[in-house]
Amino acid sequence: MSQSVVEGATRAPGRFGRFGGQYVPETLIAALEELEQVYEAARNDPSFWAELEDLLTHYVGRPTPLYRADRLGEAAGGVRVYLKREDLNHTGAHKINNTLGQVLLARRMGKRRIIAETGAGQHGVATATVCALFGLDCVVYMGAEDARRQALNVYRMELLGAEVRTVESGTRTLKDATNEAIRDWVTNVADTHYIIGSVVGPHPYPRMVRDFQAVIGKEARAQLEAAEGRLPAKVVACVGGGSNAMGIFHAFVDEPSVELIGVEAAGDGVETGRHAASLTAGRPGVLHGSYSYLLQTEDGQVAPAHSVSAGLDYPGVGPEHAYLKDVGRARYVTVTDREALDAFGTLARLEGIIPALESAHAVAYLLREGPNWVGAGPIVVCLSGRGDKDVAQVAALTGKDLAP
Amino acid sequence: MANTSSETDRLSSRFDAWRAAGRRALIPYVTAGYPRPADTVELLHGLVDAGADVIELGVPFSDPLADGPTIQRSTQAALEAGVTLEWTLDALARFRRERDASVVVFSYLNPVLAYGIERFLADAVAAGADGFLLTDLPYGCDPEFEALVEASPIPLIRLLAPTTPIDRAVAIARRARGFLYYISRTGVTGATRDLRADLATEVAALRGATDVPIAVGFGISGPEQAAWVAQVADGVVVGSALIEALDRGGIPEATSFLRTLREAIDRVR
To answer: Is this complex's ipTM strictly greater than 0.90?
Structure first.
């Protein structure tokens, strides 16, 4: 057998084809099994969804609009484009769809302490928010480099009553924050639930987080049906770990006419090696409990990712994306820091919407490829978050001094 | 018990002999290439001279999520010095050419996947390894992969945690070869002052399910704890406290620290 055994491992639990799995220290297996059982029970319990939907409606502000962005469409060469406005959620991004779902599960498990990792800080803020709402203790791990880039979100989490622990190990970004969160969970597993913020990590997280984010695609599909009476031609979303993309893709995976496009961060350019394009330029491997595409060296050491966007600055990617790539159901492309920064400004000026730098990657791909899509039909772009958190960083990068 | 290989492997035979003689196995962990790559073979000799029965030789990995700060620091330093899985197996082979001693190769999965599983299994056996310990390959998570490792002539050392439910622990124990590694507490590796009192009861419960020797690790920081563990277990694993001794005074300090553990556990029998 010349190929890796893992490639044939379809009997194992929690797989998307050969990807996914539960490659974690033994100490966590019992907690993952408990989580899976509690989640399965909740999934089949109408009262669970009723409570979650009530919170999503009255606390988060769902459904979020599907906004037809004509000036953006014109700038993209004359395409009809709709923005799924996840930036209008409470806390400013799609992350809260998942944290609310998981905090309800934590309550069912009787766990009073919540931990989370965060990159850009959006997931940390969304976790701190639901912990405030439910009166739970909250610790958020954040790489020191990210805490510097996203100082506003650090303060926001502290205002919400969370303790932010900055992580100085490794690359001091999301990967290392995730390592520390897992170490905390291994240590405090009896009373602690770990709210993973993306469709990554060991089974059941990738599936569970996708299910909580699937509301994005479900709404977008119904909203476009109401507006145009048809399915979109293409759905475009940025991919770091990949939760907003899985959330919006899920409703369309079984519709072969809908092209699914995930946009990875090319950083300085894939050819420079300074990027975060795991699906485009990585090889399959195991990180944080699952088998998926991974930026790594020849020797199997995880390679540092690079992106201007802290939320995409992660060397791994969710295993379901790896599967969708391998079976050809989704296409994964890249956008550089430069293109994302340009799109950030373009969307602000044309539509009066300041996108998160993460989401700006999806907008940038639309602006680049739009001219080839004229006449293809409506394009839905997932605007996963708002850019308030990025304003200071973009100002600094573009040489603007904001000091009074 | 339930050996998948018809022949008894060398590690199991040795444990049988130690058990017959009333000897508790002393099992130090060291990170390959730490403190310096040039030290590894000499350190391995020193550990055996100081009374080590089985050595866990750790392959450095960039993201050691089961390890605490001490071992993280050692693996980071080894990576910065250019240590790889290939280098580790080569160092093991050099040591084993000079010395008949039991060494278990300890690794996270990703370096093994990058190296190639079958190539790794073959090369580790050729280098003289006596077992594999794969920290992020828990029982049942990948049956094909586990079957391949279990088909090797040397055993896959299985881990058990205090959180492992009893039916699962029994299933793991039935599949175990070489020895079972019982993690003494929830948490990452690292020396601590206190071990849990329940440990003795938990290890005794496992005895009912398996004849495979049971070693206890995580958090063992000195001779008193080692002696206490030796009263209930067949083997005592020490990692972070040994690395800390290496940091304090290099190989001489590490070996004299290990000798204190040897003397402490030998007084138990």
So the answer is: yes
